[in-house]
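I'll show a typical protein example:
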Amino acid sequence: MKKTNEKILVSALAGMTALQGMSTTLMSVCAQENDEMTHVSVMNVKMSQKDELESKLNDSKKDVEEKTLALDSAKGALSVASKQVEILESKQDEKSQLVQQDYQAMYDAINSKLQPLLDEITNLEGQIKGAKKDLDDKISASQKAAADLEEAQNTLASKKDALEQLQRKLDSFKGEENLAKELEKATQEKDVAEKAVSDAQKNVDDANTVLSQATSDAENKKVALDQANQGLDAALADVSEKQKIVDEKQASVDSFDEDTTKAELEQAKIDLSLAKDRLSKAQESVNTATSVYNDAVTIQEKAQQAYDTSCQDLENTKATLAQAQDALAKVQEDVNNLQSQMEKKNEEIKGLNTKIDAAKSDVNKAQSKYDKALNDYNSISSPLDQAKKNLNDFETQYATELARLNQGSKGYFDSIGCSDLANYVFKVDNSAEGKLASYTNLGQVDDATSLENMQASIAYLKECNEIRKQEGLPELKVSAWLMAVAQVNANHAKYNIEHAGVYVTGENLAWGYGDANTAASPYRGWYDEEKAEYLAGNNNFSDIGHYKNIVEGRYTVTGYAIGTNGQFSMAHCQEFLDEVMGVDDDVQMTVSEFEQSFNDYCNNLKSVDSQHKTLQDAVKNAASSNTKDDTALKQAESELNSKKSVLSDLQAQLAQAKTDKKEISDNVDAKQNEVSKLKNSVKELSSQVKQKEKVKSEKESQLKEAKKNAESKANEKKDKEKDFANIQNEQSAIQSKIDTLSERLNHWDANKAQANQELQSAKDSLEDAKALAKTQKENANALKDEYEKALDVKSKAKENTDKYQSILKQKQDAFNEKVDHYDAAKQASDDYKNTVEELNVIKQEVSETTNIIQSLQEKQKALKTDIQTLKDEIVTLNDSLTKSKDKALPEQTLMNLLNETREKGSKVDLSKVEDATMKEKMTSLAQNVDALNEINGVLEIAKANYQTKYELYLDAKKAKTDADTNYNKAMQALNDYLNSQSTKETEVTTNKESVHTGVDTNVMGSMLTSMVAGLGLVGILHKKRREEK
């Protein structure tokens, strides 16, 4: 129950019939106790709080009883006031019928004599006015034809000159077919060339990637080879060094001869001196080699920097080239857009010329209307005749609109061509549809078909589409069929809380809601609350059906209606369908289109109604006025000026359109010049790219040469350092030998034994060094093979890159040539089309102007004859008109007195009525009119009294509701208190397993009935959406 209540908006429907006669809601608090239960309690309760709560409960109960009595009193007073209004309205209808019957009988009697005379006068006046109008028209037409003829002849000469110039320009082209073929061929060739450039660029990019990888691989392998060679050199040097040590040790062992040792010592001292000299010279060589190597490294760094700069410069130029190509494409696109605008502007100019022709026709019609109004004004003899004539003409002209004033929505449906569907939906008969239609009172206040309620429905249609947009769904269109169906269903819902079930649609119903886009909108329940239920996992259609209808993706059309002041306040109805079938004259519009259409219809009706009332007042006031009404003349003059203004605006628009076309043409020329400049820029940048690629290649060669030279100088430096190290080692060896020989002589025997031991150790070390050198040599040889293979791969990749670079240049040059060819062909084709279009327009204008000249010449001849004939006819008609007016004057005076009596009653002086019987009937009519006016006054007072009683009833009902709320709160507070005290502070002993102590609230059946009648109920109909017929 709680979930249901949360989804239903409670409506304040105080005073509605559904609540009348319902019994006052009664609530009682009952303490229920089991007879077999034994209570043993030790109470520890604060009695003061309980007494206070019980006191509040008693006070609120008394307040409910007082407010119930007040509500019943207000309801009785309201019923009395309603009955008074009903009695007075009945008397009003009875007296109105009597007045109308008396008036109609006298009107028919007078009119039977007057109308033939008026018809004759009207006929004569119409003939005279027609003749005068024709005469004025003929004279104006003759003058205008002469001026138009001169203008047309000048225009024709100008058009022929323009035609000759365009024809000469057209003859200079190759022909449309040849131009089209050339453009198609150029387009195909450009596309092919562009693809070839793209393919070639991809090949270059791929080749550069391969070359870069090969270069990197070769350099890595070179580094590995250099490291291996260095290891091998070090190993070989170690072998050599250790061999020397062995030799030295062997010589040392062999040299253990004292005399020989002394001689070697002396020789060693000499060798040491020589070694020192060589070491000094070797240091100088190392210093020189280091300086040369440093210079080579500096040259290499500069070469590297120059190479990097050339690479960056090349990339920058390529980027600039790409930007220029993008700019060229954009400007070319601008040219195409401008040419498209040129075509649209030509269409606009053509359309404006058509509109100008129509506007000229409208000006001519308005001029004729003005001439007629002027002639009418001059020919009317009195203000009364003029006022009647104006009213009669207006009622004849706007008979349809006047008839629709009280038809409500049916009049609108008729106006948009939906008469058949409106007649079907609103027809009352014994069918199910007819019985449903019986709830509808077309156009009446509070009815769903009233224009006011139909206007109000638009806001709800907009709110629905806003919801669908938020859900990512297409907006629904408005269907005239569903609008009519929604209106009869809404009227049915004003008196029935249920779906009628007559038409097969998706349908949402609601009662008691308020304005759209507010917290009281029916969409708060239909959509907000039911969507929350759906998202919470509730898939029961009876709970979420309104929401599902609103967000159903298959639905394409809708209709909405509201009925006000029904038995259940305001009733809302929205219909949905995916397709309207079997209704031939249904009209569907977007909501904005429907709003515009409906507002235009209402505004037109309001305007017609206002004008009609003004003309009726003018007839009433004309008898006492001596001044003729010039309203029609002023309106005709205003309309003429308006039409001339429209024509002037269109001519100004045409001039502006031609100016715009000239501006667009200038922009096309400017853009084409920009295209030419950009093409030259692209060519120049392409050439720069080629040149900078060449520079990059040169710098790359220089860098390689510098690296090679630096490597050579590094090797030379290494050799010098090696020589220096060898000499150092030699010097050290000699010094060691001297030391050894000296030490040997001093410790001869011990040293000899030591020499043999060192010899064996040196031999062992030599074998280890030889083994390592062998391994290093094998590794260096393997890396050398890999390096040579990498160089071969790099060389082939470089050849491949150079080949694809050459192909890319060829393809780029070919593409540029094809683009130039395409641009020329496109420009030629566009120029040809524009020229043909302008030529056709001029030819049409020449033909039209020639026809106009011929027509004007023939028209001038015929007008001269017509003018004289009309002058003679007008003289004869005026004589006949004077005689007819004299005959009609007495009857017209009597008719005026009758109409005045119908309005003013006994205030009218009837002494001038000569016919005694007619005078007696008019006196009786005056008395009945006075009585009717008196009833109307009393009725207004009774309605005001009813409104006052109704507002008092609403106040009493609200006070009763507030009292009920306070009583329920007091009851709940006492119940909560007793429960809490029972739990905390009461010890209970029973003779059974359970004890029940508490307060229950009993709601009587009448209370439930009252709540249901007061709720804003939400209906839901989910039926089969389409039925095969």
